[in-house]
Structure formats: C-alpha cells, structure tokens
Amino acid sequence: MAKSERAKELAEKQKAEAKALREKKRNSDNPADWGTLRQIRESFKLTHQVDPQLPYWLAGSWLAVTLLGLVLGLVMGRPGSLDWLWGLLIGALFGITAALFMLTHRTKKGAYTRYRGQPGAGEVPLSMLNKKKYTVQPAISVTRAQDCIHRVVGEPGVVLVGDGDPGRLKQLMSTEIKRHQQVLYGIHVEAIQMGEDAGQVPMEKLQKHIEKLPRTLDAVQVEEVKGRLKALDAMRSRIPLPKGPLPTSMKGARKAMRGR
Length: 260
Fold this sequence. Notes:
Structural class: alpha+beta
Largest sheet: 4 strands, mixed
Order of helices and strands: HHHHHEEEHEHHH
Strand order of the largest sheet: 1-2-3-4
C-alpha cells in the first residue's frame, strides 16, 4: 500500500514537472522552445513589418501550385472521373509547402532589409552558414565607430569579414591578418569586405560567397586551427562590444526562420 502511494506521488510529481515545462516553453521568448506553428507565426510577423507584400507572395505561391494540381488532374485524369478533385487536393497540399518555402525566402530577404546599415549587420548572413561546417565568431575586433571584423573558420580556412566603413577598417583588417598569420603557420587568411562597392561582397551574397570558397582544410586541420585561434584570443586584450545596436536581437527571427 505504501509502495502504491509512493508511486502515485511520483507520478503526480512527474506530471506537475511536465506541466511546468510546457508552461515555461509556452511563455518562452527563445525560438528553440517554440512549436512549429508559433515559429511560423512569429516569422511571418517579423517579416511582414518590413515586407508588406508578404501575404500576397504567400497566397500567390499557394494558389499557383494548387491551380497546377487542378490542371494536371483535368489533363491526366480519366474522363468523367473525380481525378480532377484529387489533383486539386494534392495541389493544395503542395501549395502549402510552396508557401512555406516562399516564407523562408522572404524572411531571409526581410532580415537583410531590417538590419542593413546597422553596426554588426554582417552577423545576419554569417549566422545562416551551416554550423556543422563553419564556426562563426562575430565582432572579434571593433572600432570606436562600431565598425567590426567577424571571423569564420571552416574548410576554406580562416575568413575575416570587414563590416563597416572600409577606410576605418583598413588598418584594423591588416593588423588582424598579421595577428592570425602568426599562429596559423602558413594557412591562408581570406579577407572580405562587406559592402556594395567594387571589390566588396554585398550583404545578401556574403553567405553564398563564403560557401563557394575553395576547400583547403580537412576536418582535422579545422580543429587544429580552432585550437590555435583559442590561444590567440586568450592572449590578446579583447575590445568590449559597444552598447549600440549590434543586432543580437535578430537571433529570434533567424531561428524562427530556420526552425528548431
């Protein structure tokens, strides 16, 4: 009897803990705790603020694929049958998928629009790199004017990304390249300046640009480079990040866009 009571108390305790966890996730502002529907809803809200045409893009995507399914059902269906109805239903289902793809695309574009021109905005495209392949460290060096240099480590080697005024970043970038080369022993350090002028990489193309860089390191070498960079970061005095609008709050929008 006592054993049964203890089991009952344990079950109630576990039930209460599970309920508390669900409540915590329901009230959480961390997108990792959100369900799929909430992620989609929050992503839509954030993107709609900078992209008023978003509802029309989503509706158009759904409608186009749905109509395509209907047409295929009519053309390929048997005369006098309800194959057109199956085509319509299947088209509607694939239309939802098309609308979600469109939402992902517009959310990505909206993130660029929202943070373009802000200090540290280069973190937006860098955060979209595959985390299994690339290690991103934003703002490893920052000027007083809030220009900064981000670092990416992966199979292409070490990539330093200048984010801000090229004139103010020129000397800082040169110093960072020399500093990295001192511990990397011959490993190439790629320097990229984000911007719209000639010789620069636009914000919306930065992710693809880095992904297309030639692979020069294998997995073992990448880990070795990370270890050397940890030692480099430990030795130098880090400049504290300014309290300005570095877009750390964008993480919610990015995660909502990517999903869990």
